[in-house]
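Homework help board

Subject: predicted structure for assignment chain

Our instructor gave us this sequence and asked us to write out the predicted structure in token form, then describe one feature. I got the tokens but I'm not sure how to describe them. Can anyone check?
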Amino acid sequence: MGEFIIDSEDFSEEDKRRLSRALAPVADADVPLVVELALVGEEEIQALNRGFRKIDRVTDVLSFPALDLAAGKSIGKADYPVETEAGALLLGSVAICKKRAEEQAAEYGHSYARELTYLAVHGVLHCLGYDHEREEDKKIMREREESVMRALSLARE
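My token output:
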């Protein structure tokens, strides 16, 4: 199991602790993993999407993995430089568009908190190497997302 450190000014300390605990079974790591989570506006996420993905539109979440990881593989301290002062490994950064999260929560008929958490989990899984481009990979990623959301008592309503 991995230990996650959520670095965010946009999530409460309790939400960060809960998310860290729920994510722990998803990663096999012998070093704590730091993930930066930030809520951004539509203009900022569009600029990031345009700059990094060459897609000039607003999106709900973008992930910026710091490492090139394969989904489900162990993360060893010996294999990666430890990058933070606390001796943890920077896994990556996740930007979530607050307005899109609000809109999607209304569209899907669930709470903003659930949507925001889902987008954070989705982004972190991308930082861990999970993807949803191929159907078989999408199935695995969705299973991981749902297991984390169940652990948070935020399974699909």
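Reply (TA_rk): Your tokens look well-formed. For the description, you could write something like this. The first helix runs from residue 13 to 23. That's the kind of observation they're looking for.
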